[in-house]
Design goal:
homodimer; alpha+beta; 4 strands; Glutathione_S-Trfase_N (chain A)
């Protein structure tokens, strides 16, 4: 059986979410790197458009299918590979996990991803990105104040943690002041050295530029 | 608290909010009676920003659903909660791959299109540029949705049963029309939208049927 293949970019936070989930669930996979930069972005080439019509990463080829959208991929992994679950059993706690995932994946990241920043323009992109990240993190911090234990929801790692850590990295890239978000910072710090998260980190990726890799 | 579970769910909703509309459709399809608390996104700079509502929804958005003694935010989260707690009239297929196809369409709309054309972003973009901005992101997203539908659609978005994908699609088509997006390049989207236009659950959820729809707009 062929290993799943993940189309990924080293610094893409959405790809990173899926890499974390695959690692946590101990699902071996191969990476096909898609450079979002080279030649105007390999994600826009005809061949990749056949894989992902949104021309984004990640995409996952698994079980003879191709699946796009990071939350969709992660839910598919949860439903088909129930070992090392990343979702609680309780329906309300599952909702708490999804709330955090959705606030990040629809409320923050789409507003600061590459294609939008290009459209916003070089002059305004930093302020734009900071604005939407701070707005979203204020909400995430509030949600976490009710849901968090050791991790985002209770004391087990969930899909919410898979979404949070890459978004914190992005926040730092855009020099967002994270001091108003102590719970976010605590959880990020807690997970920093977790093997599954370290292995998924941009600096550990095969397409990470050598000058950046630790 | 013991009486809460017998009370009807309460949906914080704005008549024209596409995200609220998705949830209204799902509640109707699953035959879950609910009450609406209207939140005007316009009055006084937007009631969603007031202190009281911020306690309900820290993203200061609609919809929010109070159900089973809890408050849940984010439309896809709400819809998944309804699916998991009220399995009658399922809006998700059983097959895991088909479920993924439903979620792909939901996510492309809910993270790839709508956040880029919702009110708070358009205010930030500014009056001059907002129409072109909204059209750009809707068209980009609909190109992808049309491609996904070409593989997944039967009578509806995924096969021949109504799913959460249809709940997301119809409100987004309405938004596309509001921004004068040319929909002719998207024949499958148009066909499905037309198919569902007169479905009772979709009609009852339509902005024009909402208690807070301005009288001059209601059909």
């Amino acid at each position: 059986m062929a290993k799943p293949v993940l189309y990924s970019y080293w610094r893409s936070s959405c790809s990173w979410r899926v890499r974390i989930a695959l690692n946590l669930k101990e699902i071996p996979y191969d990476i096909k790197a898609v450079s979002l930069i080279k030649g105007g972005g390999e994600q826009h080439c005809n061949e990749y458009r056949e894989v992902n019509p949104m021309e984004q990463v990640p995409s996952l080829c698994i079980d003879g299918h191709t699946i796009i959208e990071s939350l969709t991929i992660m839910h598919y992994l949860e439903e088909t590979r129930p070992q090392r679950p990343l979702m609680p059993q309780d329906c309300f706690k599952r909702a708490k996990v999804r709330e955090i995932c959705e606030v990040i994946s629809s409320g923050i990241q789409p507003l600061q991803n590459l294609i939008v920043l290009i459209y916003v323009g070089e002059e305004k992109k930093k302020e734009w990105a900071q604005h939407w990240i701070m707005r979203g993190f204020r909400a995430v911090e509030k949600l976490l104040s009710a849901s968090a234990g050791k991790y985002c929801v209770g004391d087990e790692i969930t899909l919410a943690d898979c979404c949070l850590v890459p978004q914190v990295f992005n926040a730092r890239r855009f020099h967002v002041d994270l001091r108003p978000f102590p719970i976010i910072l605590r959880i990020d710090r807690e997970l920093e050295n977790h093997p599954a998260f370290r292995a998924a980190h941009p600096s550990s990726q095969p397409d990470c530029p050598p000058e950046v890799a630790k």
